[in-house]
Design brief:
By secondary structure, this protein is an all-alpha fold. The chain contains 11 helices and no strands. The protein is globular, with a radius of gyration of 18 Å.
């Protein structure tokens, strides 16, 4: 056992560097957002903090990362995961929309947002999601997987991802706790379904991330930190995340999930 532990790669340097850079880069982009004229409801430029962080880390730790990042899988596997992530996001949308309607609320629908048509908003969500997923599912999670079991890597990625949304923690403890629960649920959905090499994981993560953002907007607009809607999608995220985890565990067996 001691030999196995010793052989595990050391990931502290790249991981710590990425996390620090992602926070700093996103903070700088947040300042620029106010001078850009871009409504954050349409596109939050802080979403590009993670991809900037990955670019810098890749330059510094290039040789180390070659041995840490996983190999590609067959295209049909990725295609299956894309179908699964779409189904998961549709289930999430259905659960949240149902909860809002049962609770006496009304659905927001496909309305213009941030001064742009809904179709443009959808495109911007895909672009923004890609900026984030390069960092979360493309880099951080697989690097952590090289040292830890996949559930641990997904959980750690989810925690960092949640903490990265600093603004959510300025709305009181109830909102903060519910938001963390929601992000951990989303991390399970995207983390277990994203497989293969860097590009493949980014693809699956981007599709799922964008669909989650779009689904929430269709239900509640850009008021995603208000109550009770936050409680609705936190519960839905945890439920769908648990179902995806169970599905993944059944496919891979009781041993280390991959």
């Amino acid at each position: 056992m001691g030999t196995d532990v010793a052989r595990k790669p050391q990931v502290g340097g790249p991981v710590a560097s990425y996390i620090l850079l992602a926070f700093v880069a996103s903070g700088c982009l947040l300042v620029l957002q106010g001078h850009s004229g871009i409504d954050p409801a349409a596109l939050s430029v802080t979403q590009f903090g993670p991809v900037i962080a990955v670019a810098i880390v890749a330059m510094v730790w290039r040789e180390r990362l070659r041995s840490l990042l996983p190999s590609a899988v067959p295209r049909e596997v990725v295609a299956g995961r894309l179908v699964a992530v779409v189904v998961s996001c549709l289930a999430l949308w259905g659960l949240v929309a149902g909860a809002v309607v049962v609770g006496g609320g009304t659905l927001h629908g496909a309305q213009p947002v941030g001064g742009v048509p809904f179709v443009v908003f959808v495109l911007l969500q895909v672009i923004g999601a890609a900026g984030e997923e390069v960092g979360w599912r493309g880099f951080l999670q697989p690097v952590l997987e090289s040292r830890y079991a996949r559930p641990v890597a997904i959980g750690l990625t989810g925690v960092v991802w949640a903490l990265w949304h600093v603004a959510a923690f300025g709305h009181g403890p109830v909102v903060a706790v519910l938001f963390v629960c929601a992000v951990l649920g989303f991390a399970c959905v995207l983390g277990y379904l994203a497989v293969g090499g860097f590009g493949q994981r980014v693809l699956v993560g981007t599709v799922g991330h964008a669909l989650i953002n779009i689904a929430l907007y269709l239900v509640m607009g850009d008021d995603t930190l208000g109550l009770p809607q936050l409680a609705y999608y936190a519960g839905a995220a945890l439920l769908v995340g648990a179902l995806v985890w169970a599905w993944s565990a059944r496919r891979t067996g009781p041993t280390r999930l991959s």
